[in-house]
């Protein structure tokens, strides 16, 4: 082992010991540390002043009880989290996830990723994440509202326009942000619109925010394909998931001439050789909050599969837009065998380490989540700008800003990879570029 390998193994060992039982957090840290080896080789000062140890330790971790009463008058107790990971570049920024799988390790992995993602946007936002193990599935509107109010009744004291600005993630969309904003406003007796993003359009929300993560992932993919002499026009694309990110990734990909050949939810996957009817899908998922099987029942030429995997489909492009570790080594092998050429992550850490290694070995162009899905949080930062100036921008203006930001992110990742003699490795490029900006700020601001 080289000295750098040993040094980095030492940092990783400390993370493992201090954060036992948090495999997703370990995975996220391991991937970034691996990329940092070549930075430390060239610029050893990035390890000065305990920088790497400080980067891996959240500035603050808040865990709280969220009691609420269900429709049958039973008291329910969930756990709430907010991990304020790093504020060197700006107020903590990152979504809230409501899903039964949520625990501290999941929130820490998401918060850690968010630091580098937010840095890559070029906008002044730090990294944080939060959420709860609350399961919104099957809950009535009133139950969702009571839960959100109870959650905010504790969270409000830790957040603020200049402190920490949460938004949505899995299980948290416009409806939940609305209930949380209402409770916040009531508790602080101020209409502080900059405290949350993803708000409704008449009370401080931004056009394009809803579409932004999915659109951004496709803008990134488009840049990556063009840089490699290809285009989405005529391409076949697999999009896993059918939530907010997936839906708008499908819409934009089809707008740019691609055919989306499949999508999914936790109940199964749908094969759509002739493309996806986005309006029908939006009606099923957004209006009716239904399952993807309902989509199949109401259209022709689409088939629902309970078994097997969406990654068995053959396509030029794969966009995992569902959740962490949804695409493993076997899935990656199937995709590669079927001729996939581009993969971009709309979800956070959807590809396992084995999948990434295979894509690397087979020279598949790979856009990591912290670059490819940064459009959501970038547009949140644009929402913050609009709130701060008490302005609201048009759809086209905001969409153009998003497009420009995604193109910058791709160029930064590509150029940084080249600078470190790893041309085409956008993972290394994104990790290093995201890291250096945060690290420079941390070094300049002293040991805090
Ligand atoms: N949850 C989204 C993400 O993973 C967006 C966060 C935000 O808008 O603050 O980046």
UniProtKB/TrEMBL annotation:
SMART domains: ELFV_dehydrog. One of its GO terms (biological process) is glutamate biosynthetic process. The record marks 169 as: Important for catalysis. Belongs to the Glu/Leu/Phe/Val dehydrogenases family. InterPro entries: Aminoacid_DH-like_N_sf, Glu/Leu/Phe/Val/Trp_DH, Glu/Leu/Phe/Val/Trp_DH_C, Glu/Leu/Phe/Val/Trp_DH_dimer, Glu/Leu/Phe/Val_DH_AS, Glu_DH, Glu_Leu_Phe_Val_DH, NAD(P)-bd_dom_sf. One of its GO terms (cellular component) is cytosol. It comes from the Bacteria. Substrate binds at residues 93, 114, 117, 168, 380. Residues 206-446 form the Glutamate/phenylalanine/leucine/valine/L-tryptophan dehydrogenase C-terminal domain. Homohexamer. PANTHER family: NADP-SPECIFIC GLUTAMATE DEHYDROGENASE 1-RELATED (PTHR43571). This is Glutamate dehydrogenase. GO terms for molecular function: glutamate dehydrogenase (NADP+) activity; nucleotide binding. Pfam families: ELFV_dehydrog, ELFV_dehydrog_N. NAD(+) binds at residues 213, 244. The active site is at 129 (proton donor). It catalyses: L-glutamate + NADP(+) + H2O = 2-oxoglutarate + NH4(+) + NADPH + H(+). Keywords: NAD, NADP, Nucleotide-binding, Oxidoreductase. Catalyzes the reversible oxidative deamination of glutamate to alpha-ketoglutarate and ammonia. SUPFAM superfamilies: Aminoacid dehydrogenase-like, N-terminal domain, NAD(P)-binding Rossmann-fold domains.
């Amino acid at each position: 082992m080289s000295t750098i390998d040993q040094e980095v193994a030492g940092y990783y060992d400390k993370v493992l010991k201090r954060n036992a039982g948090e495999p997703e957090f370990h995975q996220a840290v391991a991937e970034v540390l691996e990329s940092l080896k070549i930075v430390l080789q060239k610029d050893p000062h990035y390890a000065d002043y305990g920088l790497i140890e400080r980067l891996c330790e959240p500035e603050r971790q808040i865990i709280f009880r969220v009691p609420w009463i269900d429709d049958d008058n039973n008291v329910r107790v969930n756990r709430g989290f907010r991990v304020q990971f790093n504020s060197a570049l700006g107020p903590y920024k990152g979504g809230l996830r409501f899903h039964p799988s949520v625990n501290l390790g999941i929130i820490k992995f998401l918060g850690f990723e968010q630091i580098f993602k937010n840095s890559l946007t070029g906008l002044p936002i730090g990294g944080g994440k939060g959420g709860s193990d609350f399961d919104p599935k099957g809950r009535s509107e009133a139950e969702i509202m009571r839960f959100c109010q109870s959650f905010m009744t504790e969270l409000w004291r830790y957040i603020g326009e200049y402190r920490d600005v949460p938004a949505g993630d899995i299980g948290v969309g416009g409806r939940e942000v609305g209930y949380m904003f209402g409770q916040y406003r009531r508790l602080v007796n101020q209409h502080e619109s900059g405290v949350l993003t993803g708000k409704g359009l008449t009370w401080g929300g931004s056009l394009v925010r809803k579409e932004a993560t999915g659109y951004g992932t496709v803008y990134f993919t488009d840049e990556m394909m063009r840089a490699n002499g290809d285009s989405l026009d005529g391409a076949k694309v697999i999009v896993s998931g059918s939530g907010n990110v997936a839906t708008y990734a499908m819409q934009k990909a089809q707008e740019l001439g691609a055919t989306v050949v499949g999508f999914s939810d936790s109940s199964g996957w749908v094969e759509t050789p002739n493309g996806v009817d986005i309006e029908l899908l939006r009606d099923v998922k957004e209006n009716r909050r239904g399952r993807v099987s309902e989509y199949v029942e109401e259209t022709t030429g689409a088939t629902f599969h309970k078994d097997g995997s969406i990654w068995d489909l053959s396509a030029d492009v794969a966009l995992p837009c569902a959740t962490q570790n949804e695409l493993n080594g076997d899935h990656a092998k199937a995709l590669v065998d079927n001729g996939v050429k581009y993969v971009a992550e709309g979800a956070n850490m959807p590809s396992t380490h084995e999948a990434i290694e295979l894509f690397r070995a087979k020279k598949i162009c790979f856009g990591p989540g912290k670059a490819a899905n940064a459009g959501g949080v970038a547009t949140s930062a644009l929402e913050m700008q609009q709130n701060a100036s008490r302005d609201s921008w048009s759809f086209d203006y905001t969409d153009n800003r998003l497009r420009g930001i995604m193109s910058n992110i791709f160029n930064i990742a590509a150029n940084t990879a080249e600078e470190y003699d790893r041309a085409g490795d956008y993972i290394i490029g994104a990790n290093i570029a995201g890291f250096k900006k945060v690290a420079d700020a941390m070094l300049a601001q002293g040991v805090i």
